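In the design runs reported in the main text, the only information available to the sequence generator was the tokenized backbone. The following block is the verbatim input for one such run; it is reproduced so that readers can re-run the procedure and compare outputs position by position.
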């Protein structure tokens, strides 16, 4: 039996009286890219925060690497990119990477910084202050930080917002290479053509997980050609 890397079982979560997740069960298995999609406010970031132990569930269970969350030890084993950039603006890109690499106990820091900067195309800008970076450059630096140490699990909340199409393609190529090397990736996106690139799409609507399958199987089930159409039809049916 495969042991899931991330497993949510019958998870419910409320903020005040607002039910954000209603009995959601959902797993991310080793070596797959799972795309979490849903309209704004559907609860995607809440799922991510639960997986990271930053939010606790009201009911149900969340495990990561088979350990019940929250569990601080797990954090060293995963790369996380939040929806808003948490960078030190007064430091250069390189210094930001050095800081996070040291904090995470990454070995061979200099070569690791070169590696991750190359992936996100930031090499020529590493010695500039982060305060002078454009929005897209800050996203790229945050993504590079998540890649530091080549973690077995990546959790990425809207990683490609503000990133140009050619670099976005390069980043997805890299994510797929990582997956092919056995890494596990949970990613949220609003970009529907990115959802075509994942192994499994988990669609959240109204606090419920209403679809959870490969893009092609979902397209067949809804008799449409794209995940965007699946999304629109699922919303209409709600
Ligand atoms: N700390 C909080 N306190 C109160 N309400 C919250 C909190 N965090 C999230 N919410 C609410 O929970 C709902 C789900 O939020 P969440 O950020 O998980 O959505 P999302 O699917 O990630 O949205 P988006 O695509 O816009 O990022 C929203 O209505 C949001 O306002």
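Verbatim output:
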């Amino acid at each position: 039996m495969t042991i899931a890397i991330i497993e949510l079982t019958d998870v419910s979560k409320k903020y005040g009286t607002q039910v954000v997740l209603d009995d959601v069960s959902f797993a991310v298995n080793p070596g797959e890219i799972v795309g979490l999609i849903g309209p704004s406010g559907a609860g995607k970031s809440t799922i991510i925060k639960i997986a990271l132990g930053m939010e606790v569930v009201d009911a149900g269970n969340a495990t990561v690497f088979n350990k019940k969350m929250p569990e601080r030890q797990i954090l060293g084993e995963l790369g996380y990119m939040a929806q808003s950039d948490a960078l030190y603006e007064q430091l250069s890109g390189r210094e930001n990477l050095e800081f996070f690499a040291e904090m995470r106990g990454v070995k061979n820091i200099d070569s690791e910084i070169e590696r991750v900067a190359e992936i996100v195309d930031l090499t020529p800008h590493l010695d500039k202050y982060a305060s002078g970076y454009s929005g897209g450059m800050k996203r790229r630096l945050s993504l590079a930080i998540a890649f530091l140490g080549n973690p077995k699990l990546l959790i990425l909340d809207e990683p490609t917002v503000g990133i140009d199409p050619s670099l976005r393609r390069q980043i997805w190529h890299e994510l797929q290479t990582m997956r092919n090397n056995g890494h596990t990736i949970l990613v949220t996106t609003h970009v529907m053509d990115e959802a075509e690139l994942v192994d499994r799409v988990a669609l959240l609507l109204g606090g419920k997980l209403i679809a959870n399958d490969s893009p092609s199987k979902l397209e067949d089930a809804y008799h449409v050609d794209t995940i965007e159409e699946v999304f629109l039809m699922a919303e209409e049916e709600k």
